[in-house]
Amino acid sequence: MVSNESLEWAQLIFSKAKLNDPRRTKRLVKIAASLASNAGKSLMSSCPDPTARSL
Residue 5, class by beta-carbon neighbours within 10 Å (0-12 exposed, 13-18 middle, 19+ buried)? Predict the structure, then answer.
């Protein structure tokens, strides 16, 4: 579960990233928020959905 605080932080930091496709930017925000909400855990446990782990 992603906390609102982590999501707000990720949006503030990464929402303006120029990745040539807005879907990639949304995915980056989602991954960053998930990692921030699960600090100290592995990537696999922070992002259990395999599609969320790739840009």
Answer: exposed
